Amino acid sequence: MPSKPNCHQAKPLVGYLGLSRHAFLLLLLIFLPVRSLLATPIDGMVGKISQTDYANYVQQLQNFGTRYYNTQGNVNALTYIYDAFIGFGLDVGYDAFSYNGNSYNNVVATLPGKNHPEQVYIVGAHMDSTSTAPTTNAPGADDNASGMATVLEMAKVMVGYAFDATIKFFGFNAEEQGLIGSKAYADKAKSNGEQVLGMLNFDMIAYPGSGGGKNVFLAGNSGLVDAMANNALKYTDLTTTLNYNNLYGSDHYYFHSSYFNGSTSAFAIEAAPASIPSHNPNYHKTADTVDYLDFSYASNVTRMGVATLAGLANVIPEPSSLLCFLSGGLLIIFVHTRTKQNHNNYS
């Protein structure tokens, strides 16, 4: 039997660092959380978007039968949205406006900014619906329970984080009558000197088309459009079509820089507005129900939205993440120093 070669046995890593096993395990427990720094707070928000919750919001809004602006269904839907925002832990209120001599409401939830609360970013969608029988049967699943569900899901996720700027989550009313609710608020904000820096609007984002496509149409001020497109590329498998104009037809319109000095706006929709009637055969019909929607597609639009808004309002890293960063940095310095010392000792 050949003799065992006299080889130098490698020193275990723990011994090489001059640490006891217990000390090594303790440092390992400190170091492992540092890996979480590889995931930003925005990554965390995007990962928390729930397709199940999103689909439930759309279904609940459809269940009111109609959300036409002057019906009890509309009032009931506003209450549902209000209660949902309350459940998330947000400060919620009704925003009244007049139309045809009567008073109606938007609903708004506010997440105050920590460092610059005077700066405001808005995310909104119209909660009302219409159809060929608007007062009795206007389910409006795609138009626009889909957009309102995005706002609700974003609010649910974002309330767990802190931001430099204030975020307002809006359910706009009477959009189908000519952007009445959103124009009323935009006019009020301008008159009061509210520092609205940006507004993201979601309108019809759950019907990808007969070919089952994944494209989303983005239009508005270029900075916001590009931000949404970049986040779609980073966080989803969506493709995007970009338009840098203020296209009429939804609630972003009166927040655009051309109407609201200092503000910007952009919106997401499943196809170019001019082609919507041919893109979605159920548009403004009683057949606009959840049966025809793609919730995976809509959830990706929501992920794009939450990433964009979190970047605009500047999410603040949690103190625990900063602590992990410092702990990890100290650990790396410590290990590097001990490694050099031990290397010199073994040389």
- Report the helical percentage: 40-55%
CATH class: Alpha Beta
Tell me the β content. Answer: 15-25%
Shape: globular
This entry's quaternary arrangement is: single chain
Low-confidence stretches: 1-17
Topology as a string of helices (H) and strands (E):
HHHHHEEEHEEHEEHEEHHEH
Assign the structural class, choosing from mainly alpha, mainly beta, alpha/beta, alpha+beta, or little secondary structure: alpha/beta
Number of helices: 11
Q: Please tell me the CATH architecture by its name.
A: 3-Layer(aba) Sandwich
Strand order of the largest sheet: 1-2-5-3-6-9-7-8
Could you tell me the number of beta strands? 10
> Over the alpha carbons, how many angstroms does the gyration radius reach?
26 Å
Q: Return the domain count.
A: 1
Describe the model.
The chain is α/β, with parallel strands linked by helices and 347 residues long. It has a single domain (41-319), classed as Zn peptidases (Aminopeptidase), CATH 3.40.630.10. Helix content is 43%, strand content 19%. The chain has 11 helices and 10 strands. The chain has helices at 13-16, 21-31, 41-48, 51-62, 72-88, 141-158, 180-192, 222-235, 276-279, 295-313, 319-346; strands at residues 91-99, 102-111, 116-126, 162-163, 165-172, 195-202, 215-220, 239-243, 265-269, 315-316. A hairpin with a 2-residue loop joins strand 1 (91-99) and strand 2. It is globular and about 50 Å long.
